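Researcher: Sequence recovery benchmark, item below. Answer with residues only.
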């Protein structure tokens, strides 16, 4: 049934009260900020000790010997005319510090670079993170050095020294007497036809030597973009504002060829959309030889496959797709009120095309409806899609789980909770998480946790592990969004204290993805290597669409609800079955986040 009018009215009244309270709190907070200001940014003298080294992170268990094959986990990757290796040894150069040392950022110079390889830029990281960083260094592949530049027909080396440096920013206030402890940020000026890949940092206003870094021929690079702010020096702390960002390739996903070098970007006046002064590398090897083969994929899943825990009060469990079909799921066509039974492998589902509303899947009618809604944990498995990431220097292992039904939501308004009778529920629920594996070593680097229409990447050092290097994934009650730690997460407007509760906890209900999985796609391996199931080609919705009509409310409440719904997850607007995995943007593209 529809949520009751009384239920909605009560919620709206509470929201109005909280909104007014929030406005008052905002005014008070603003007054406090103006009164007390912010933490002071200061220089660290060179005669002081460098900030304490962050604790080095390593995975809990040693890596196994991976099955042999091509170039996976060999420590170096062929990018076409360049060969890249990971360097994770660094020398401290400079640290930006606040009164709380852990809130500072430290900048490092890569050392221990193998003979014949060259630095492309320096590295930095926040002091509150475990140390696990690296940068890529590169060399020309000997057999292809001095190759002919495609666009000019002139023999040009892949790497060249810069012709000069430009000082981008300094923590010095302009006084020559106060140079000690200052940091100076330099952008290499590339020769014509070349691109800079990273910045250098020094403790002196003297320009670095030209041989300290190399620039890369432009056709071997891709455009990159700012990703996350690492350091933000506002005008309160410096005469000129300054920001340091992590970067990532602009074109990502399994078709992207941009390769992150893991340097940083910095500037004083960058605006969103503006092209950066540096680029990333480009993988021109059409074979992507560093990607894992079939045997290596299975070894990775066996070693890293997380355990997915469902809430102890969960009543809408996952199942296998075949169980869903076997137990009465029906295929409907627009204009036809009678559903058609579906073959166990989905072979009679319409394949290809687009989500045009002509077909959808629904639960069986009658007595079987409720039993199918409850799922079947014993049959559940993870459906695995393996694809290149960051130009084939990483592997993304996307693990999809299917639930026949997504239960109704619980609305959190301030400190109060409302279990909604219908809002948020829909037939068919596809959720996923993604393991990102470093192809240089085979290490688990991070996991992406999908959360309804968004998600978040979590580094390996912030994960919870159940055994060895196998992480834990928590699935939220009713909604099945994935999270890295137990607790309650709110989706909606934090400022209003309004949103949907996502409750996650450990229980006796779980699926071990290291053993309960099925590899359904890995396009880079070539046609026929992995047999894709018939149901994967179904591009329509896995549940019917029902839109909630709030026109039954009084006009004043109708207007309030319309404005409030804008701040809530789209799942609350009505019941709408999701499309299958292959219709999602992240099937080909990168994850959101």
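Model:
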């Amino acid at each position: 049934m529809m949520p009751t009018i009384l239920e909605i009215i009560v919620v709206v009244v509470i929201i109005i009260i909280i909104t007014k309270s929030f406005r008052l709190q905002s005014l008070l907070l603003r007054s406090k900020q103006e009164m007390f200001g912010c933490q002071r940014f200061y220089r660290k003298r060179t005669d002081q000790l460098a900030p304490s080294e962050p604790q080095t992170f390593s995975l809990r268990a040693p890596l196994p010997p991976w099955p042999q094959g091509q170039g996976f986990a060999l420590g170096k990757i062929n990018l076409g005319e360049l060969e890249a290796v990971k360097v994770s040894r660094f020398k401290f150069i400079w640290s930006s510090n606040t009164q709380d040392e852990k809130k500072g950022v430290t900048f490092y110079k890569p050392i221990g670079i193998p003979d014949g390889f060259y630095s492309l830029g320096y590295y930095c990281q926040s002091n509150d993170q475990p140390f696990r960083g690296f940068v890529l260094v590169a060399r020309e592949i000997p057999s292809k050095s001095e190759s002919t530049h495609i666009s000019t027909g002139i023999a040009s080396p892949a790497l060249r020294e810069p012709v000069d440096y430009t000082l981008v920013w300094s923590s010095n206030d302009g006084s020559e007497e106060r140079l000690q402890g200052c940091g100076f940020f330099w952008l290499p000026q590339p020769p014509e036809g070349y691109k800079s890949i990273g910045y250098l940092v020094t403790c002196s206003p003297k320009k670095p030597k030209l041989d300290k870094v190399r620039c890369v021929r432009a056709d071997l690079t891709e455009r990159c973009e700012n990703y996350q702010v690492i350091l933000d020096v506002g005008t309160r702390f410096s005469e000129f504002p300054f920001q340091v960002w992590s970067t990532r390739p602009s074109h990502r996903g399994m078709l992207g060829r941009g390769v992150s070098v893991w340097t940083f970007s910095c500037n004083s006046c960058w605006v969103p959309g503006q092209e950066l002064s540096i680029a990333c590398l480009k993988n021109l090897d059409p074979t992507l030889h560093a990607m894992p083969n079939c045997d290596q994929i299975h070894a990775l899943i066996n070693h890293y496959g997380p355990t997915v825990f469902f809430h102890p009060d969960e009543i809408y469990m996952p199942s296998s797709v075949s169980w869903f079909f076997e137990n009465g799921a029906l295929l409907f066509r627009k204009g036809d009120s009678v559903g058609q039974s579906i073959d166990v492998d989905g072979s009679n589902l319409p394949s290809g095309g687009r989500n045009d509303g002509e077909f959808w899947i629904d639960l069986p009618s009658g007595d079987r409806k409720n039993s199918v809604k409850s799922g079947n944990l014993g049959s559940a498995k993870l459906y695995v899609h393996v694809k290149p990431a960051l130009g084939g220097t990483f592997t993304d292992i996307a693990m999809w789980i299917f639930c026949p039904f997504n239960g109704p939501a619980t609305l959190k308004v301030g400190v109060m909770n409302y279990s909604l009778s219908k809002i948020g529920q829909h037939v068919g629920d596809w959720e996923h998480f993604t393991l990102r594996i470093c192809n240089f070593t085979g290490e688990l680097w991070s996991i992406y946790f999908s959360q309804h229409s968004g998600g978040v990447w979590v580094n390996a050092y912030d994960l919870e592990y159940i055994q060895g290097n196998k992480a834990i994934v928590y699935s939220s009650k009713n909604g099945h969004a994935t999270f890295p730690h137990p607790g309650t997460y709110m989706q909606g407007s934090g400022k209003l204290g309004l949103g949907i509760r996502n409750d996650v906890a450990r229980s006796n209900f779980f699926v071990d993805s290291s053993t309960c999985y099925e590899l359904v796609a890995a396009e880079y391996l070539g046609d026929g290597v992995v047999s894709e199931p018939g149901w994967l080609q179904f591009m329509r919705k896995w549940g019917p669409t029902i839109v909630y009509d709030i026109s039954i409310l009084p006009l004043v409440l109708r207007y309030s609800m319309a404005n409030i719904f804008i701040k809530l997850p789209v799942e609350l607007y009505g019941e709408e079955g999701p499309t299958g995995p292959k219709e999602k943007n992240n099937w080909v593209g990168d994850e959101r986040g």
